[in-house]
């Protein structure tokens, strides 16, 4: 089968987008609890870029091939699989290996295409929807009537978080890096959007909330935002961190707001979670979110697609941050 190699001929060394090259590899065999999917579309995500550069290695036992989400047709099932059969149309949160013509995924991390979806839209769901559900509604405990500040509002995560937070009854604020991206956040449902290059998001949140702050902040920027994020939170607020795109070492941090306002600082990554933990998220998504997707109340925004063999170009676009929504690969 065709897959995308990022290890410079198996040396294990990553690098720039140019290391992503198509090669021929063996057909993967599903384990007892896995399905084998003939992929038709694959999502491109920030963790893929981190793995390519060597800063986010796959966990033990996972495929070394990049890729965390795909959609396609089941072509084989493991001995313990009970839900899926050959021919089923599914999307999956893979533990790795999605940048390929065939990908294995645990049955418990595999979901049906929402009604009315094709492979491209279905493949754009798993990574961001699993991540947002676990962090915004799990660790962040966002509830109807509360408020949330979402950084990176036009990223794949941001687009998903804005829509779901709004759909579940929250007041939503988002940051973005241009007037075009601010407009996109508002179109997605944000109550207000802040151009962080033109104004201080901390001061704007203070004005928008009458000085009270928000209940939840979802952050992927990291160290430069840490102090301001704490100041944006109200009493009993929750800061949820899911990435450190601009650094993970925060210096000269005033910790007093954590005590004075009884704040919770938390965060998580998705890939190291157990299959059982991911299964709980999958079940919640299918029960509570998939019906919304079928009704058109939320859904992915596809910015641009590339054929699988042009994965390097997809990564260059991802690293430019010029996109609004998801970058996708299609598999012939």
From TrEMBL:
<keyword id="KW-0560">Oxidoreductase</keyword>
<keyword id="KW-0521">NADP</keyword>
<dbReference type="InterPro" id="IPR011032">
    <property type="entry name" value="GroES-like_sf"/>
</dbReference>
<dbReference type="InterPro" id="IPR014189">
    <property type="entry name" value="Quinone_OxRdtase_PIG3"/>
</dbReference>
<feature type="domain" description="Enoyl reductase (ER)">
    <location>
        <begin position="15"/>
        <end position="329"/>
    </location>
</feature>
<dbReference type="InterPro" id="IPR036291">
    <property type="entry name" value="NAD(P)-bd_dom_sf"/>
</dbReference>
<protein>
    <submittedName>
        <fullName>NAD(P)H-quinone oxidoreductase</fullName>
    </submittedName>
</protein>
<dbReference type="InterPro" id="IPR013149">
    <property type="entry name" value="ADH-like_C"/>
</dbReference>
<dbReference type="InterPro" id="IPR013154">
    <property type="entry name" value="ADH-like_N"/>
</dbReference>
<dbReference type="InterPro" id="IPR020843">
    <property type="entry name" value="ER"/>
</dbReference>
<dbReference type="Pfam" id="PF00107">
    <property type="entry name" value="ADH_zinc_N"/>
</dbReference>
<dbReference type="Pfam" id="PF08240">
    <property type="entry name" value="ADH_N"/>
</dbReference>
């Amino acid at each position: 089968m065709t897959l995308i190699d990022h290890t410079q001929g198996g040396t294990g060394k990553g690098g720039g987008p140019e290391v992503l090259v198509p090669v021929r590899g063996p057909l993967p065999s599903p384990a007892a609890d896995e399905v084998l999917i003939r992929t038709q579309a694959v999502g491109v995500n920030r963790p893929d870029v981190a793995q390519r550069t060597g800063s986010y290695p796959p966990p033990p036992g996972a495929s070394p091939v990049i890729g965390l989400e795909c959609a396609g047709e089941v072509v084989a099932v493991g001995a313990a699989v009970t839900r899926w059969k050959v021919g089923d149309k599914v999307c999956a949160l893979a533990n790795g290996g999605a940048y390929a013509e065939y990908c294995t995924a645990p049955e418990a991390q595999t979901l049906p295409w929402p009604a009315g979806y094709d492979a491209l839209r279905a493949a754009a769901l798993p990574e961001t929807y699993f991540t947002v559900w676990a962090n915004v509604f799990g660790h962040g405990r966002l509830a109807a009537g509360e408020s949330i500040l979402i950084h990176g509002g036009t990223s794949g995560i941001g687009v998903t978080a804005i829509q779901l937070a709004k759909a579940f009854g929250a007041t939503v604020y988002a940051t973005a890096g241009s007037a075009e991206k601010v407009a996109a956040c508002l179109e997605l449902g944000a109550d207000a959007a802040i151009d962080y290059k033109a104004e201080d998001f901390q001061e704007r949140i203070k004005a928008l909330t009458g000085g009270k702050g928000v209940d939840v902040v979802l952050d992927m920027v990291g160290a430069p935002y840490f102090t301001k994020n704490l100041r944006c939170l109200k009493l009993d607020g929750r800061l949820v961190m899911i990435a450190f795109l601009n650094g993970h070492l925060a210096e000269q941090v005033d910790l007093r707001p954590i005590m004075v306002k009884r704040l919770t600082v938390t965060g998580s990554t998705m890939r190291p979670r157990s299959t059982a933990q991911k299964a709980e998220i999958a079940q919640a998504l299918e029960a509570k979110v998939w019906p919304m997707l079928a009704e058109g109340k939320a859904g992915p925004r596809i910015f641009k697609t590339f054929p699988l063999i042009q994965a390097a170009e997809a990564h260059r676009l991802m690293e430019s941050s010029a996109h609004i929504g998801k970058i996708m690969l299609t598999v012939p």
